[in-house]
C-alpha cells in the first residue's frame, strides 16, 4: 500500500487551532485555572493595599481601600473563592486595627467594609445562579435585544412596494413588549407579517416579547395563514404566564395582485389609505386577544391595495391614554396620517410616533406599507 504524504499545511493549521482552543480554555473566566489565577491576583492585590495603608500617612490611604479587591472579587470569583478572599481581607483589616488602633481606623470603616462584602457575595450568588461570568449576562441581553430588532426588520420588498417601521419602548428602555415579525413566502410573491403587543410595558414585557417573537417568527410561513393566530394562542396558553395575554394583527399581502387578508386578535384597527380618493378608512375587526382561552374566534378582513394605496398598522400605545376614549386617540392618529399625504409616506412611521405619542408611557410600534 502506498503511504500518502502528510499535508504539512493542514497539520499546522490543525495544531494552531488546537493550541488556540487550549489557550481559550485556560483563559476562560469559567475555567479552574483562570479562577485560581484570579484569586491569587486578588490576594496579592489585598496584600499590596494592606502594605500601602499600613505605611502611608494618616488619611493618605484609609483602611477602606481594602474594599477594592472585595468588589473585584464579587465580580470575578465564585462564592467559595470569594470567601477565601474575604478572610484574607478581614485578616488585613484586623492587622491594621492592631497596628493603628480604633482611634485611627474608625469603626465605621468596618461597617462599610462588611456591607461591601455582603454586596460582593450577592453579586457572586447571582452570577452562579445564571452560570455566567462577569459581563456575560449583559452580553446575552444585548444579543437578545439585537435579535429582536433583526426580527422586526422588514424583508427586501420587490419593486413597487415600500415599508417603514418605527418602534419606541416605554421609559426609553431598549426592551419593549411591541414587536413585529415578517417574512416573504411563495418565492417572494407574498409578504406575511404579524404586529404583536404583549401585555405590560418596558423591560417587564420585553422578556416575554423575546420568547414570543422567536416562537411567532418560526410560525410564519410554517403554518397556513388561517392557522397562524390560533397556533400563537395555543403557544401562549401553554406558557401559563401570570400576565401572558397579547394582542396581534396578522396580515398576508399578495405582492403581485395587491390582495391582502388581515386577521385581528383584539388589536386596534388598521387603516387603509385609498390613493384614488385620498381618504383613510379604518378596517374594523372583532377578535379575542391571545392567551386567555382556547378555541377563540378572530376577526378577518380582506381587501386590495391598488397603486398608491397604503396600510397603517400600530399598537395601542400610540392611541391609548388613561381616562380618554380610544377613538379619540385613533382620530388623532388618522389626522396625523392625513398630514403625510402631501409629503409622501417615506419616514412617516417615525413622524407619526413623534407627532402623536412622543412622550407616551407605553411601548409604541407603527408600520406603514404602501404601493408606489
List the SSEs and their pairings:
Elements: H1 8-27, H2 32-55, H3 67-76, H4 79-100, H5 107-130, H6 136-151, E1 161-168, E2 178-185, E3 190-198, H7 202-219, H8 228-239, E4 246-254, E5 259-265, E6 270-274, E7 279-283, E8 299-304, E9 310-314, H9 326-338, H10 348-356, E10 364-371
Antiparallel strand pairs: 1-10, 2-3, 3-4, 4-5, 5-8, 6-7, 6-9, 9-10
Description of the structure:
- This protein has 372 residues and is α+β, with helices and mostly antiparallel strands.
- It folds into 2 domains: 8-134; 142-371, 4-Layer Sandwich (Phosphatase 2c, domain 1).
- The chain contains 10 helices and 10 strands.
- It has helices at residues 8-27, 32-55, 67-76, 79-100, 107-130, 136-151, 202-219, 228-239, 326-338, 348-356, and strands at 161-168, 178-185, 190-198, 246-254, 259-265, 270-274, 279-283, 299-304, 310-314, 364-371.
- The strands form 2 sheets. Strands 1-10-9-6-7 form a 5-stranded antiparallel beta sheet, covered by helices on one side. The protein has a 5-stranded antiparallel beta sheet with strand order 2-3-4-5-8.
- The longest helix is centred in the first third of the chain and has 24 residues, at 32-55.
- Mean pLDDT is 82; it is low at 1-10 and 20-29.
Amino acid at each position: 500500500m502506498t503511504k500518502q504524504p502528510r499535508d504539512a499545511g493542514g497539520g499546522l493549521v490543525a495544531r494552531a487551532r488546537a493550541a488556540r482552543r487550549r489557550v481559550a480554555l485556560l483563559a476562560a473566566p469559567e475555567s479552574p485555572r483562570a479562577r485560581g489565577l484570579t484569586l491569587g491576583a486578588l490576594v496579592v492585590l489585598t496584600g499590596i493595599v494592606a502594605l500601602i495603608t499600613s505605611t502611608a500617612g494618616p488619611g493618605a490611604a484609609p483602611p477602606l481601600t481594602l474594599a477594592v479587591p472585595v468588589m473585584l472579587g464579587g465580580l470575578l470569583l465564585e462564592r467559595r473563592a470569594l470567601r477565601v478572599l474575604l478572610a484574607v481581607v478581614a485578616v488585613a483589616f484586623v492587622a491594621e486595627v492592631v497596628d493603628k488602633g480604633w482611634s485611627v481606623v474608625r469603626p465605621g470603616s468596618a461597617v462599610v467594609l462588611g456591607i461591601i462584602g455582603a454586596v460582593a457575595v450577592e453579586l457572586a450568588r447571582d452570577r452562579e445562579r445564571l452560570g455566567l461570568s462577569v459581563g456575560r449576562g449583559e452580553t446575552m441581553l444585548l444579543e437578545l435585544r439585537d435579535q429582536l430588532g433583526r426580527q422586526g426588520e422588514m424583508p427586501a420588498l420587490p419593486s413597487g412596494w415600500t415599508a417603514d417601521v418605527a418602534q419606541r419602548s416605554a421609559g426609553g428602555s431598549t426592551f419593549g413588549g411591541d414587536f413585529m415579525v415578517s417574512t416573504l413566502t411563495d418565492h417572494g410573491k407574498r409578504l406575511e407579517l404579524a404586529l404583536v403587543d404583549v401585555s405590560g410595558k418596558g423591560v417587564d414585557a420585553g422578556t416575554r416579547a423575546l420568547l414570543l417573537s422567536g416562537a411567532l417568527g418560526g410560525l410564519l410561513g410554517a403554518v397556513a395563514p388561517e392557522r397562524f393566530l390560533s397556533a400563537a394562542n395555543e403557544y401562549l396558553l401553554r406558557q401559563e404566564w401570570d400576565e401572558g395575554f397579547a394582542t396581534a394583527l396578522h396580515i398576508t399581502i399578495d405582492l403581485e395582485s395587491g390582495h391582502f387578508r388581515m386577521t385581528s386578535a383584539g388589536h386596534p384597527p388598521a387603516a387603509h389609505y385609498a390613493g384614488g380618493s385620498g381618504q383613510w378608512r379604518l378596517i374594523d375587526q372583532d377578535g379575542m386577544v391571545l392567551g386567555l382561552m382556547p378555541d377563540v374566534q378572530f376577526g378577518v378582513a380582506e381587501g386590495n391595495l391598488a397603486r398608491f394605496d397604503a396600510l397603517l398598522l400600530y399598537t395601542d400605545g400610540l392611541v391609548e391614554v388613561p381616562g380618554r376614549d380610544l377613538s379619540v386617540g385613533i382620530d388623532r392618529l388618522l389626522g396625523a396620517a392625513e398630514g403625510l399625504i402631501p409629503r409622501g409616506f417615506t419616514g412617516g412611521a417615525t413622524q407619526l410616533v413623534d407627532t402623536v405619542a412622543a412622550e407616551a408611557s407605553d411601548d409604541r410600534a407603527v408600520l406603514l406599507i404602501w404601493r408606489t
